Amino acid sequence: FRQDEGEEEEEALRRKLKYFFMSPCDKYHAKGRKPFKLGLQLLKILIVTVQLVMFGLSNQMVVTFKEENTATFKHLFLKDYQDNAPQALISLFGLFPQYLALPQIALGRYAYVTGVGVRGSALSLCQRYFRRGSIEPVNDTFDIDPHVLTDCLGVNPTTEDSTPENGDLHNFTLHFSKLINVTMDFQLKAINVQTILNNEIPDCYTFAITVS
């Protein structure tokens, strides 16, 4: 009796192990039970796939919008800029009219961001230069104090003194003999309404731009 009982338990365990390692189709044929777990897994895979596709499309729109606006800024603020050119000429006083007239000359809608520059301005113009510098190429001599100084000027497009011909900008003197670099920093806001075509809420962007 014990031997028969042991054989039955062994056979039952063998069947359980065999059933455990069966494929969903074999389990369905063995018991005729619908593979609900398989359907649930397939549903999860479908949901994850749809989410990945939507994320990829959304990310593609972000990248495209950023690249298009980067190219736009280069054409607006760099004189005679060409996509295939290795470099472009930066005109200090030619950039300001472009910046101030941005709402009129740009096809896209951009907004100035105030409060991010010097003394709460929208744009910061800064020059870094050596405290003392004298270079004489003829005599192969130079006298430079390595201590670096920085002068910054804030420009606000909403004020009358922000034009290149008036105000502090007109008195902003560049120390060419000891100049290290000149940088202009400002930010612009934009809204990507193309996302509406995909039934998504428009994305808002803030571009931090540095011209040096």
Describe the structure.
By secondary structure, the chain is an alpha+beta fold. The protein has a domain at 87-211. 41% of the residues lie in helices and 25% in strands. Strands 1, 2, 3, 4 and 5 form a five-stranded antiparallel sheet that branches. A hairpin with a 4-residue loop joins strand 2 and strand 3 (141-155). The chain is elongated. The termini are far apart.
Give a brief outline of the structure.
The protein is α+β, with helices and mostly antiparallel strands and 212 residues long.
Keywords for this entry:
5-stranded antiparallel beta sheet, MCLN_ECD, Mucolipin extracytosolic domain-containing protein, Mucolipin, 6 helices, alpha+beta, 212 residues
What does the secondary structure layout of this molecule look like, with pairings?
Layout: H1 2-20, H2 24-31, H3 36-77, H4 92-100, H5 102-105, E1 111-112, E2 123-136, E3 141-155, H6 167-170, E4 179-192, E5 203-211
Antiparallel strand pairs: 1-4, 2-3, 2-4, 4-5
